[in-house]
Design brief:
Elements (H helix, E strand, L loop, with lengths): L5 H4 L2 H12 L4 E4 L1 H8 L8 E3 L3 H10 L3 E6 L4 E6 L2 E7 L1 E6 L4 E5 L3 H5 L9 E3 L5 E3 L3 H7 L1 E2 L5 H7 L2 H13 L2 E2 L1 H9 L9 H12 L5 H10 L1 H5 L5 H4 L8 H8 L12 H15 L4 H7 L2 H11 L10 H7 L16 H17 L6 H13 L2
Parallel strand pairs: 2-5, 10-11
Antiparallel strand pairs: 1-2, 1-8, 3-4, 4-5, 6-7, 8-9
Helix pairs in contact: 2-4, 8-10, 8-11, 14-15, 14-17, 15-17, 16-18, 19-20
Length: 379
C-alpha cells in the first residue's frame, strides 16, 4: 500500500476541508499534481481535491464549517474553498459528455473510476484519501516510479478531446518523465494538425512552462522529430538549445529556438516580447560581453550572456568581469549642445557609446567628446 508523506497531510487548512466535506457524508481526495509531486519528492504547489459531493453541496458544507466558498469554475464543478487565507480547488468527480478538441461538456459523477479515466496522463490520475492512502485506477504508480509518461486509455482519443494535450505531453515529459510511451508519441505526431484549433495564448503558456523545465532539450528534440515543434515554432533550431547552460532563463531558450517575432504567434506579454526581441538582436549581432553589460541588467543580461555563446564566437570567458566593469557613459547631451541638435545629437551619442563600450569603459571624457562631435557633424 502506497501512502503520501506524513508532512503533507499535517496541513491544518487541508484537513479542515477534508473534515468539512466528510461532515456531510461525502468523500474527498487529493488529486493530480500534489499526489504526483509528493510521491516523486518534488516540491508540491497547489493542493487540489476531488469529491463526490456536487458543487452546491461543497459550497454549503464549506460555509457550515466557517470556510469561504468561491464558485470559480462552477460549470465544470470547481469551487475554490478558502481556508487559512489559501485557496483550494475542490472539484466534483466528472465524466465527459461531449468534447470538440478544445473544451469538454461534463456531467458530475460519484464514481472515482469515471473521473480517473477522463484525465490526461496516468501519473496525473492518482488520488489520495485523508489518511494518505494512494488510489491508483489506471496504472499510474508504476508509470510514475518508472518516470514513464503515458496517456490514460487510448492516446488518440485523449488527444482528440483536447489537442493542447499534445503540448502538455512534452511539457510533463520535460518536468517529470524519462521515458515517453511510443504509442503516445505516435498519437502526438498523428494529431499535430489539431493544434491549429488551440488558441495562441494557450500554446504560448504551455511552451513557457516547458522551457522553464530543468532540461527541456530531450522533450524539444522529440517534439521536432514528431513534427510538433514545426507546428508551433516554424523554423525552430533545437541544436542551438543544446549549447545553453541548464540554468538558462526560459526566454533565452526561446530565443535560441526561434529568432522570429513571436509576440503574436505565442501571444507573449509586452515585456516578454520586448525581452525576446532584445535577446534575438544580441544573438544576431553577436554582442560582446561589454555591450551586454552596458545595455542590459539583471536576469536579462545574464540570459543574453549565455545566449551569445551559442553564436559564431562560441564559449568565451569574461562575463563576470564585464558586469563588474560596466559604467554609464560619462558624457551627456548637454556636453554636446548647442553645437549639436536633433538627429546629429543622436548620432553623436551613439558613436560615443560605441567607443565607450569598445574601450572597456575606460576612455577619457575629452576623447569621447571628440568622437561624438566628429560623428555628429559628419553626414
Amino acid at each position: 500500500m502506497t501512502r503520501l508523506p506524513v508532512g503533507l497531510l499535517q496541513d491544518a487548512d487541508l484537513q479542515a476541508i477534508f473534515a468539512a466535506v466528510e461532515a456531510g457524508g461525502h468523500r474527498a481526495w487529493l488529486v493530480g499534481g500534489a499526489v504526483r509531486n509528493a510521491l516523486l519528492g518534488e516540491p508540491v504547489g497547489d493542493l487540489d481535491l476531488a469529491t463526490d459531493a456536487p458543487p452546491h453541496r461543497v459550497s454549503d458544507l464549506a460555509k457550515a464549517a466557517g470556510l469561504k466558498p468561491v464558485p470559480t469554475g462552477i460549470d465544470h464543478g470547481t469551487v475554490t474553498v478558502v481556508a487559512g487565507g489559501r485557496g483550494f480547488e475542490v472539484t466534483t468527480l466528472r465524466r465527459d459528455v461531449e468534447t470538440d478538441g478544445r473544451r469538454a461538456v461534463v456531467a458530475f459523477s460519484d464514481d472515482l473510476a469515471q473521473d480517473a479515466h477522463r484525465r490526461d496522463f496516468t501519473m496525473n490520475a492518482l488520488y489520495a484519501g485523508r489518511d494518505g492512502t494512494v488510489i491508483d485506477l489506471v496504472g499510474g504508480l508504476e508509470d510514475l516510479h518508472a518516470r514513464r509518461l503515458r496517456f490514460v486509455g487510448d492516446p488518440a482519443q485523449r488527444i482528440a478531446e483536447d489537442y493542447l494535450r499534445i503540448l502538455r505531453f512534452f511539457r510533463f515529459l520535460a518536468w517529470y518523465g524519462r521515458d515517453a510511451d511510443p504509442a503516445a508519441l505516435a498519437a502526438c505526431r498523428d494529431g499535430r494538425d489539431g493544434l491549429a484549433q488551440i488558441s495562441r495564448e494557450r500554446i504560448g503558456q504551455e511552451l513557457r512552462k516547458l522551457l522553464m523545465a530543468p532540461d527541456p532539450l530531450p522533450a524539444i528534440r522529440l517534439m521536432a522529430e514528431s513534427g510538433v515543434l514545426a507546428e508551433v515554432l516554424p523554423h525552430a533550431t533545437p541544436d542551438r538549445l543544446a549549447a545553453l547552460a541548464p540554468s538558462t532563463h526560459w526566454l533565452a531558450r526561446l530565443a535560441a529556438l526561434s529568432q522570429a517575432d513571436l509576440a503574436d504567434a505565442l501571444r507573449l506579454s509586452r515585456a516578454d516580447a520586448r525581452d525576446h526581441r532584445i535577446l534575438v538582436t544580441a544573438l544576431a549581432e553577436d554582442w560582446s560581453f561589454d555591450r551586454i553589460a552596458y545595455r542590459l541588467a539583471g536576469e536579462l543580461a545574464d540570459a543574453a550572456a549565455v545566449l551569445v555563446q551559442t553564436g559564431p564566437r562560441g564559449t568565451r570567458p569574461g562575463w563576470p568581469e564585464a558586469k563588474a566593469a560596466a559604467r554609464p557613459l560619462p558624457i551627456t547631451a548637454g556636453d554636446l549642445q548647442p553645437r549639436l541638435q536633433g538627429p546629429a545629437l543622436g548620432r553623436a551619442l551613439k558613436a560615443a557609446e560605441d567607443a565607450w563600450i569598445e574601450a572597456g569603459f575606460a576612455m577619457p571624457v575629452p576623447a569621447l567628446i571628440d568622437i561624438a562631435l566628429l560623428a555628429g557633424e559628419s553626414q
